[in-house]
Amino acid sequence: MRQRLCGLAALLLAGSAQAAGPVVDSIVWLNGDTLAVRVGDGVVRPSDMISSWLQAHMPGVELRPTLANAERSWTLVRQGEKACIANAVRLPERERLAYFSAVWLMPPPQLIVRRERLDALPLDVRGAVNLQTLLADASLRGAIAQGRSYGPALDALLAPGGVGLLRVTGADFGSNLVSMVLQDRVDYTVEYPNILVALGSQREGELPLAALPVKGAADPVPSGVACPRTPWGHAAIRLIDQALGTPAGAAMLREALRISLPADTQRAYRDAFDAYFQRRAKPTPGL
After folding, report:
1. What pLDDT digit, counting tens, does each position of 185-199 carry?
2. Looking at the 3D structure of the chain, how many domains does it have?
3. In a domain, 285, yes or no
């Protein structure tokens, strides 16, 4: 009888431990965003604002920051490693690989081009670039990051490639590509408009670069933390979502976005940002 009771107790304890789910005590924090902006007399990295917030609001969990490009990051998530991507574009195919917790609603990436090449670009009457025509022009050299998503609309436009388009693999999500444009190694790249704010805050004089919208890619791009679609990943994303899903968490995320965007871009997307961060001020339903 005693043996039977002991066995039953052991089963109950095992079932209780299993029901509690996996323990999340550390997260490999995969971050390819090296953007830094000058604020006052100092330099701030918006990505560091987010990781510092999470570290302070997830007691007992250690974030282990690791610089990784898009291909490596998604390989680790696909393999079910105990790692989360700090900020990734949300796509239907990625939702099948990962759990997401909302971070930002980004204005769409734009074409970053050297100013002296502006007259050579195929523009419509509103000043938007016809990307298909540009990609077919062998006289202009472009570069994008291998394995990175620029949002559904731009991904579809870029998928066929072009005679002058390079796909570059780097240590992060493509921070070297704008430098390649500055150095006149290529004529254009595709990047979010906040890159020009960051560069402008670190350099003297006017940048020799312009940012132009791409025809057919005007919608803002949602992004979020991505953790593997495993029991561990589900437990990790719930902890992250609970930390971010508060009024203070949403305010931090909005401030991190604000300091990195041009003022005119903020005004253009203000209503969308208001709605997005109002939802972000609460935990994600059903996560």
Report:
1. 999 999 988 787 777
2. 2
3. no
